[in-house]
Design brief:
This protein has 506 residues and is an alpha+beta fold. It folds into two domains: 246 residues, Nucleotidyltransferase, domain 5 (2-Layer Sandwich), CATH 3.30.420; 170 residues, Nucleotidyltransferase, domain 5 (2-Layer Sandwich), CATH 3.30.420. It has 18 helices and 24 strands. The strands form eight sheets. It has a seven-stranded mixed β-sheet with strand order 18-19-17-16-22-23-24, sandwiched between helices. Strands 3-2-1-5-15 form a five-stranded mixed β-sheet, sandwiched between helices. Strand 16 and strand 17 form a beta hairpin. It starts with a strand and ends with a helix.
Length: 506
Amino acid sequence: MKYTVGIDIGTSGTKTVLFDEMGTPIASHTIEYPLYQPKNGWAEQDPADWANASFGTVKAVIEKSGVAPADIAGVGLSGQMHGLVMLDRDNRVLRPSIIWCDQRTAKECEEITARVGADRLIAITANPALTGFTASKILWVRNNEPEVYSRCAHILLPKDYVRFLLTGVYASEVSDAGGMQLLDIPRRTWSDEVLGALEIDRSLLGEMYESPEITGYVTEEASRLTGLLPGTPVVGGAGDNAAAAVGVGVVNDGDAFTTIGTSGVVFAHTDNVSIDPRGRVHTFCCAVPGAWHVMGVTQAAGLSLRWLRDTVCTEEVAAAAALGVDPYEVMCAEAAKSPIGANRLLYLPYLMGERTPHLDPDVRGAFIGLSAMHTRADMTRAVLEGVSCSLADCMSVLREMNVSPNVMRVCGGGGRSPMWRQMLADMFGIPTAVTTAEGPALGAAILAMVGTGIHASVPEACGKIITLRDEFAPDMSAHAQYQPYYGVYRKLYTDLRDTYKILAKV
């Protein structure tokens, strides 16, 4: 029996899982780390935290499992997308990483659009210039920290920095690199045209690979820190959502899933490049060679519930500790006592700006309709419903693009909540189903299985490993009850948009 390791470098923490060749999890370990917000709308992390967590979790799963390192065939990487890691010539990190949800780069997005041209930018990168993407972060450092930029010798994404520490190789792969806004999405290679227009030296970027390809091998130093054997192959891996798609078996035309992690995503696989001309959803290369995916993003999905837990739900956290259960379990049980509509309390989940469908870095979160009669149960339900409404917005755009799945697979931390899965089924009006709790880590491990020859292709591997279970049929009566609230939810952005712009300038 051969085994593979899937390392998922997320925003809240890194989760590493050791799987056998049929995708059965043998051992799992997670290490959390902080997110820093030095200014309103900014979001940064320390790459050293990712490195320590990745190495620590790999070592832990090997020790927990008792699996011999010689039986570990390969390593796959999944990671939060868009984050900027800058190294000097001695491979030292030059500044904290500006991560995916940071919103400081509005001026740089205007600069990118002016330099490349709006239509040409979408034709090449399949997306308009966005504050969350890496290219605008590179320009922000160049414009605001020129002394840092002048010392930059290498630019990497979060998971690709971990790859470098494992293998000594500067490399990326098409699914994650697509979110940098420097990739020619149809051709699946760095765009010399965009790089030239933005005056970014191509030598700063790593070599490009497809997701299942072997990119390098574990070094002696990385072996000492992880317990992996020197020479263990490390494959390209994938951005978090592309890896999650593999982990839930969304690898064929028309397949779709929703994930609720720190951010939320509605994701659909396509064998052809499909671009929303209004730029409300993103088109990227997916982890299946020669295919793409379309995705809508809610910036603060699970982050909204985490914020509520940490700032409001102290009693629920204490009760969970006494019961020895997850605080979210107690919070959802309380939320279930509140009716659909949370007693006319609505929540806008715009804690970190928004991407789909608004593309607005200035929009912020809000409770609307709050009164003295509302309880924490109402507030929790309103947060769950507000995030679900945002994901329904994503789904509506996909339907406009003639992407209409019959079943929505659900994963991520929020996907573990039966209440939230049922709520999504009711909101979408289609069944939801769970495949596995491992999501991106399993997807990364499957890519390693394919890269090391355990399975012949990504679709073949998923066909053998992934099965649907725990289907939640939509309650169409509840679906009808949600519609008036969803209508008000959609109207609120338009009503408040100008106010947010004024507030951003105060």
